[in-house]
Amino acid sequence: MLLPARAEVARQLRRYRAWERVMLAAPADRTVRATFEDSGYTLCVLMGKRCAREAADAAERYLRAGHVTHPQEPADRPRPAATVRRGPPVAPRSTAGRP
Q1: I need a labelling partner for 63 at 20 to 30 A (CA). Which of 2, 5, 36, 49 fits?
Q2: C-alpha span between 63 and 94 (Å, rounded)
Q3: C-alpha span between 59 and 8 (Å, rounded)
Q4: 21-38, pLDDT tens digit by residue?
């Protein structure tokens, strides 16, 4: 799973929080609201969430984590069986010299 760069997450989260404060101060301003919604959308895409609040929460958790963690495969997941070959390897047949 690809994880976004911490610096970019921090930058987008700061941008989202700043526009949130401006939007709460001037909720009737359509330009401010549109910019706030754009910043929320960007954060959603970056964090893989559908809701801006969830994306902001996920970004904060991601930034608080001291180290990068990757999801682990379950231990009880069956592994594909190894292919067993019997006999020597077979070379591909040459068609050179055939009509």
Answers
A1: 36
A2: 60
A3: 10
A4: 999 999 999 999 999 999
